[in-house]
Amino acid sequence: MNGKKLYRSESNRMLCGVCAGIAEYFDLDPTLIRLAWALVCFLGGSGILAYIIAAIIIPSESTRNNNMM
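Structure for PspC domain-containing protein, as requested:
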């Protein structure tokens, strides 16, 4: 295993940090993830619900920092 875990970003967030956290996990630019998520929201409509669920399920970055101590 590579030890990578998915967390919501607290340093590069717009709303809840979900897109920035996904971008950090996959080593991509957060703007690309945000644009893709916006397209999913406008084209399919299920992106808003998926974002809310992701914001609830994905732990925040501070959780990672607290677990490392």
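The mean pLDDT is 83.
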